[in-house]
Amino acid sequence: MGRLIRLALWSRSSTPRTREIVLEVLKKTYPVPIHTRELFQRIREEYPDEKPQLPSPDLPLVQIRRVTTPSPETGTSTIPFPDHLIRSAKYLREIVMGDMVHRKQVQKVHSMRVPTPEELAQKTSKKKNKKSKNSNASSVTINVKGMVDEWGWVLRTPEEAEKMKQEEKRIKNALEGQKLLDVKQLEKDKRVRFLELWGHLNVRRQRARAEKLEREEKKTIELEKLREEGRKEGQIGVYIIIVGDSIAPEFDVFNFQEPWRPRIAKLNVIAIRSYFSTQYSIE
């Protein structure tokens, strides 16, 4: 007969205490960047007694959904340090640091350093004999400049956070200004095309032609909106077309089904007839 056991429900987000620990360690190393592995090791050494917040003993078993399963190779838990608040380097890198970057508390910076003689020798031997896949020896990548690329975490000071905020604001304003320039350029292009077509007319007729084109453009937009609404509803209602005080009865051929409400639009009857004739083959 099997036994019912209560398993730990691991947190999938950072906690205030985990962020506080990371900030305390980064304050000690500032302004030198620190790699995730080194950061995790320092946390383990300086805060060895930090325990995870386990679920309440009254929590129903049906709510326990995350299980710590043993590895088939070693027979041990896949969580490196299940009894510590920061249980693994992966949790630190992907969950905690990702959340702190979003909160603008830390940032990842890039740096380059001169490779050590051991690293240069390792690169030379790697060219001669490719490492086996089962080798546990750590290696570094030397770039085309002959330097070693390194990425590390560093504390973001309030001044840097404010500077980043101002930079984001500047970029946003630049994008909005570019959009405004694009709109102005579009209007200018439309004006040029209009003059190419109707530049031979006098000023009064040009104004009348522009107003007519604007009305037709608005009608087209409203027609597309009506068609999209009809597609979303899945039904076609009665379109009551009002031109002045008259109603076009020929559009009663559409079967009106409740609760789909009729759409009332002040549109041109000829344009509507042409539109529906194209879409629904109405004679």
Give the SSE layout.
Layout: H1 16-29, H2 36-46, H3 89-102, E1 106-113, H4 117-128, E2 148-155, H5 158-198, H6 203-233, E3 239-243, E4 246-247, E5 263-265, H7 269-280
Parallel strand pairs: 3-5
Antiparallel strand pairs: 1-2, 3-4
Task: Describe the model.
The chain is mostly helical and 283 residues long. The protein has a domain at 16-108. The protein contains 7 helices and 5 strands, in the order αααβαβααβββα. A 3-stranded mixed sheet has the order 4-3-5, with no helix packed on it. The chain is elongated, with a radius of gyration of 34 Å.
Properties at a glance:
single chain, mainly alpha, three-stranded mixed β-sheet, 7 helices
Q: How would you summarize what this structure contains?
A:
This protein is mainly α and 283 residues long. 48% of the residues lie in helices and 9% in strands. The strands form two sheets. The protein has a three-stranded mixed beta sheet with strand order 4-3-5, with no helix packed on it. A two-stranded antiparallel sheet has the order 1-2.
